[in-house]
């Protein structure tokens, strides 16, 4: 396991929900006898925010703050499609390798294959193995070629995060190249920023947009998936802020 990834994920676990609010509740319980007013405020506000962020209505609103418009037209002067890895499963007991891409990456590959067949552009897949095992890019290339009948020209298999996706892809493609970038809609702004900083002219091709269900009483009911979506959106907003603050 890559130490930098381990440290970053550990910090993020306590800066984002639900970890942040669980931490605040624990602090409140520790302070309940010495500073009861502060303790009750911490516990009550944390429970309120946990409940609020677990509502589909709130989760979708947060996702919409981040997600870009969908790709309308493939530009004629783009030179490549760059597809980013979004994680994998180690316990893939149904696969010979014992590992495979997760659902997020599969969504990206499906869209990548559609765009590649429509545009005839070559494909670069990017994703390392921050948690060990087989690199995401190796698995992605194998699936694109064998299951989607889509050839892969470049395999970048050393990156451990979005910034390295961009910097290492820049070593494989021409400088200032116009690329079509494929990733999750909520991840696109941060990914686009990272690739733009590396000199790419980025055409965002986002996929897996938030499911906008019809407003109903269920939109206000706490759901585990809504909490996950809220955390994902806040993670991306925090990441975008970090990218802006970094030189």
From TrEMBL:
<protein>
    <submittedName>
        <fullName>YdcF family protein</fullName>
    </submittedName>
</protein>
<dbReference type="InterPro" id="IPR003848">
    <property type="entry name" value="DUF218"/>
</dbReference>
<dbReference type="Pfam" id="PF02698">
    <property type="entry name" value="DUF218"/>
</dbReference>
<keyword id="KW-1133">Transmembrane helix</keyword>
<feature type="transmembrane region" description="Helical">
    <location>
        <begin position="44"/>
        <end position="66"/>
    </location>
</feature>
<keyword id="KW-0812">Transmembrane</keyword>
<dbReference type="InterPro" id="IPR051599">
    <property type="entry name" value="Cell_Envelope_Assoc"/>
</dbReference>
<keyword id="KW-0472">Membrane</keyword>
<feature type="transmembrane region" description="Helical">
    <location>
        <begin position="12"/>
        <end position="32"/>
    </location>
</feature>
<feature type="domain" description="DUF218">
    <location>
        <begin position="80"/>
        <end position="239"/>
    </location>
</feature>
<dbReference type="InterPro" id="IPR014729">
    <property type="entry name" value="Rossmann-like_a/b/a_fold"/>
</dbReference>
